[in-house]
From TrEMBL:
This is Genomic scaffold, ProqFM164S02. It comes from Penicillium roqueforti (strain FM164). It comes from the Eukaryota. Gene3D superfamilies: NAD(P)-binding Rossmann-like Domain. InterPro entries: NAD(P)-bd_dom_sf.
Length: 138
């Protein structure tokens, strides 16, 4: 963080950290998983096959990232470092291509009327990024 704060001081303008989040981090399955082993780290535990709960892994992996951003924000001077976590909503990506065919058909149907094109979501993030500091932090 000293580099970020130093950059802000050197340039005279705030530095930004952007995290593209997802509301999936609110629906985690860590309480349903077996406990970590004494010599096992959290990420290794989350990556183990026996602790993987299908269709909840995405949210489980978004949770540590969101927790990091939430814990980092109060430690930094908001005049020097602006942290924003944005959720562009459902985005039409190829993540569903790895699903079994029967699931892919359902997800394709939902995506056809709910998902935004990638470029639309990306443009929202770019426009936020270019917003003046007082707008981005409000």
């Amino acid at each position: 963080m000293p580099n970020l704060e130093g950059s802000a001081e050197k340039t005279g303008s705030s530095v930004r950290i952007a995290w593209v989040g997802n509301r999936a981090h609110e629906a985690i399955s860590l309480d349903k998983k077996p406990p970590t082993k004494p010599d096992e780290g959290l990420l290794a535990h989350m990556d183990s096959e026996d602790a993987c709960i299908p269709f909840q892994r995405y949210g489980d992996l978004k949770q540590p990232c969101a927790t990091f951003i939430y814990s980092l924000a109060p430690r930094l001077d908001p005049k020097e470092v602006i942290i924003n976590m944005t959720c562009p909503g459902m985005v039409n990506t190829n993540m569903r291509d790895v699903l079994p065919l029967h699931m892919r058909l359902i997800v394709n149907l939902v995506m056809s009327f709910r998902a935004k094109p990638i470029l639309h979501s990306a443009s929202c993030i770019v426009h936020w990024w270019r917003a003046p500091s007082h707008m981005a932090s409000s």
